[in-house]
């Protein structure tokens, strides 16, 4: 393929959730050759560092890739895509700066001060992405000890971005609270919820670490991920199917899910009954038209 940006995002999410859920990491050998060929043609990742973050999470950035990104950030920051989230730019810069010699305690304190301040409000546009990247940076520089102080902020962000559909069947996470209002950014009514994979991905990682806030129904999120992970062979394969399946597996490993697990067979039977009912109705319609 000529553009692997979206596949990188999905694969990075899938690999992360499988690893944290105790699953088998995917074999990246074939993929990495194609990926490196694409990076050689597009060394700046379309000038959007969100995609570079996916490659970094997979551990597939080479030395020359870091060097190209460093030049881009320091020499041509104005060329970056306006869609490049500020926090992903900061993360790539810090990961690039700290990939060599071990950090001193003074380095850790300096970087922590840079990352820890000016946390975005829970209702701001990129609050979910923002706190996700902040925590990732703190972990990388060895300051996980301060992450717990963000718990109340994380819970507020999760509740702000939680979005059940209008029918009460499914729910996912959106980039921000205002995404629930129909506008140019989210042009789909919530009674036709198809999800926002990156936001749900970040939210699930945060809940696995901080717990599930009261007011978030994991059954609705599970129904959404279950629907998103089904592939019927009627459309081209996509990494979003496997990513949703990995997130569903991760959700089922949460301690808070145990109270719902014993009822899951009931939900599966209800889904099967709906399938049978639809099949019988279709058969009846065909029969009466003969």
Index terms:
2 strands, mainly alpha, globular
Overview of the molecule:
There is one protein chain. Helix 9 runs parallel beside helix 11 (239-252) and helix 10 runs antiparallel to helix 11 (239-252). The protein is 58% helix and 2% strand. With 290 residues, the protein is mainly α.
Structural class: mainly alpha
β-strand number: 2
Q: In what range is the share of β-strand residues?
A: under 5%
Distance between the termini: 46 Å
Strand sequence of the main sheet, in spatial order? 1-2
Walk me through the topology.
Layout: H1 5-20, H2 29-41, H3 49-57, H4 63-75, H5 86-97, H6 105-116, H7 127-140, H8 151-161, E1 162-164, E2 171-173, H9 197-210, H10 218-228, H11 239-252, H12 258-261, H13 264-288
Antiparallel strand pairs: 1-2
Would you kindly provide a brief summary of this structure?
58% of the residues lie in helices and 2% in strands. It has 290 residues and is mainly alpha-helical. Helix 1 (5-20) packs parallel to helix 3, helix 5 (86-97) runs parallel beside helix 7 and helix 9 (197-210) runs parallel beside helix 11 (239-252).
